[in-house]
Design goal:
The protein is mainly α. It is globular and about 60 Å long. The two termini are 37 Å apart.
């Protein structure tokens, strides 16, 4: 009874709500705890079924509503509860393998492909970025003015309080550029936080023998056929004037970050299993923090993978095949 989805989900929702409300503390620890707010919902869902994630989302929403009001509850519902319930539901989807009519029923189970799961997470990230734009302004000028004001109050005033002198007129073009990039940045940030929490919850559930599906082969994920076209469309639409172009920027940013993740998996497969491999990967990840443009190269590697099939070619040269799950359905 203590392990029932109802009890687990309710408890996870309470913890998630407390983590969500932790930003009121205003400390770095509070911000870190806020980033972990989706973790209890994912853990409940991946360990006890998507119904437990749904219960976690509902109970957490009620707690946030009672403690912080309807606006905070709406943010919790749309930014956390619905996404972690949806992604958990998709992760646990499965179907039995198909066999010929004169064959016995197949015993193998095909689980929802990881690549499609990441793709839908990117869609959710782009949609959340788009629907949050009217909260800051109903036209492009008011939106940019609001974002610039937020950046000034959150960043520039702290810098000036430290004794630095800033010419606000000189840095105004930079602030305008940051305002234009804000939807993409917010979508990328949300997508990274959600996927990291989902991965962490999955590893915890796996180590606890509670994971309701086999661990996917991350290195061989691939995106559905619609994904490159969706990225191209979002990129082209980002040049539109007004709110439509700003919203499309967020969607394009989320999709591009998904290809960055794909590029990382390609690099992991292409690197030979030599003694230098850990050193190369360490240098790569350190370089990402120091030189941001390396991320663009990695994303373009991910974009090139469907065209050139880099991972399969590397495995063919090494005389290996993808270890389960590298097929087109991914």
């Amino acid at each position: 009874m203590m392990n029932s989805p109802l009890i687990i989900g309710t408890g996870a929702g309470l913890v998630s709500a407390v983590l969500f409300a932790s930003t009121a503390g205003g400390t770095w620890l509070a911000v870190l705890l806020f980033y972990l707010a989706p973790l209890p919902g994912f853990l409940a869902g991946l360990g006890w079924g998507w119904h437990a994630a749904l219960i976690a989302g509902a109970s957490g929403s009620v707690v946030v509503l009672a403690a912080l009001g309807i606006k905070a509850a709406a943010v919790f519902v749309f930014a956390l509860a619905i996404p972690f319930t949806t992604l958990t539901y998709l992760a646990l989807l499965s179907r039995t393998g198909v066999t010929l009519p004169d064959q016995p029923p197949a015993q193998s189970v095909e689980w929802y492909p990881l690549g499609r799961l990441v793709a839908w997470a990117a869609v959710i990230a782009g949609a959340l970025s788009a629907i949050s734009i009217p909260l800051l302004g109903f036209d492009s000028s008011s939106y940019r003015d609001t974002v610039v004001e937020i950046i000034e109050s959150a960043l520039l005033r702290q810098i000036e309080a430290g004794g630095a002198k800033l010419d606000r007129e000189q840095i105004k073009p930079l602030l305008q550029g940051m305002a234009y990039a804000m939807p993409a940045a917010s979508a990328i940030f949300w997508l990274g936080v959600m996927l990291m929490n989902m991965w962490t919850a999955g590893r915890i559930a796996l180590m606890s023998d509670r994971l309701a599906r086999p661990w996917p082969d991350i290195h061989f994920m691939s995106f559905p056929p619609f994904f490159p076209l969706a990225l191209a469309a979002a990129f082209l639409l980002s040049f539109l004037p007004g709110i439509a172009g700003i919203a499309s920027t967020g969607i394009a940013g989320a999709f591009f970050f998904a290809y960055f993740l794909l590029g990382l998996t390609v690099i992991h497969v292409l690197l030979p299993p030599t003694g230098a491999r850990p050193l190369i990967l360490t240098g790569l990840y350190m370089g990402l923090f120091i030189l941001g443009w390396i991320g663009l190269i990695i994303a373009f590697i991910g974009l090139a993978e469907p065209l050139f099939n880099l991972r399969q070619r590397a495995l063919n040269r090494a005389g290996h095949r993808p270890p389960g799950g590298g097929g087109p359905g991914q």
